[in-house]
Amino acid sequence: xxxxxxxxxxxxxxxxxxxxxxxxxxxxxxxxxxxxxxxxxxxxxxxxxxxxxxxxxxxxxxxxxxxxxxxxxxxxxxxxxxxxxxxxxxxxxxxxxxxxxxxxxxxxxxxxxxxxxxxxxxxxxxxxxxxxxxxxxxxxxxxxxxxxxxxxxxxxxxx
Length: 159
What we know:
The N and C termini lie far apart (57 Å). The protein has 2 domains: 8-89, K homology (KH) domain (GMP Synthetase, Chain A, domain 3); 94-157, Ribosomal Protein S8, Chain: A, domain 1. It is 46% helix and 22% strand. It has 159 residues and is α+β, with helices and mostly antiparallel strands. The chain is built from 5 helices and 6 strands. The protein has a 3-stranded mixed β-sheet, sandwiched between helices. Strands 4-6-5 form a 3-stranded antiparallel β-sheet.
């Protein structure tokens, strides 16, 4: 039977236990870190060798593993659960850094040309990184357009 409410720490531990079992079932060895990112977010990071298959192309398998983990944690608690993030082999950190570099270059182009630029469709997590990066830079702003799964960002110069 599900607990009435799990603390964020308990949600992180439930996610870690689920991931440990999942990795074992697939024959992968990994260690896990649980970090409270903020008052409503816990992240479980898996570290180990040869975990690329669990990341998948463009993080697709990682997204599925995260969804499974969230579902498991949600079933442990009758009350609302907080945000549970999963990272495997540092993929999210590397992806965030690459998106930030890419976005900075696009902002420089947009500011220099004075013309807006539409980016390729991307998932919500990647869009958030782009929005946050542009918001930290001067001379440009963003807007999202389209409908999932083809939602995309337009970076426009501030006039």
